[in-house]
Amino acid sequence: MRSLGSALVALLLAGCSLLPPPAGIQLTIPAGQDVPALPVTVVDNAGVVREAMPAEHPPGWSGETTVHAVAGREDAVVLAWTGGACDDRAVITIEQTGDRYRATVESRSSAMSCSAVGVLRAVLLSLTQPLGPEAFDAA
Description:
By secondary structure, the chain is mostly beta strands. It has one domain. It contains 2 helices and 9 strands; from the N terminus they run H-H-E-E-E-E-E-E-E-E-E. Strands 1-2-6-7-9 form a 5-stranded mixed sheet, with no helix packed on it. It has a 4-stranded antiparallel sheet with strand order 3-8-5-4, with no helix packed on it. A hairpin with a 2-residue loop joins strand 6 and strand 7. The radius of gyration is 17 Å and the shape is globular. The protein starts with a helix and ends with a strand.
């Protein structure tokens, strides 16, 4: 009985990683040096994202959550953020706020303890229309 209780507690604590990902565009940022692959879900409540794929973080980027232009493409932006080394999943939510769009990144982890190492992450968002990074606020 005691092991059943321990298993139940472990399941409750690991709840984030056991739940299925939310509905949306699913992609995986490939593993890097000492960093596992990261599943990402893009929840596009604004209806402006056509597809999403892993991207390189922009040169000179400070590590804050930001939206960047893609050279030669007005219908795409790169969303970049710093995640954690123990993240199990990231959820990017796009919401329309008036005539602008808000991109929010939520990193999820079931780790009980983890190093405070930040991991640079980036996703290319192909858009349904030319918007440019100035149409986005990031958090």
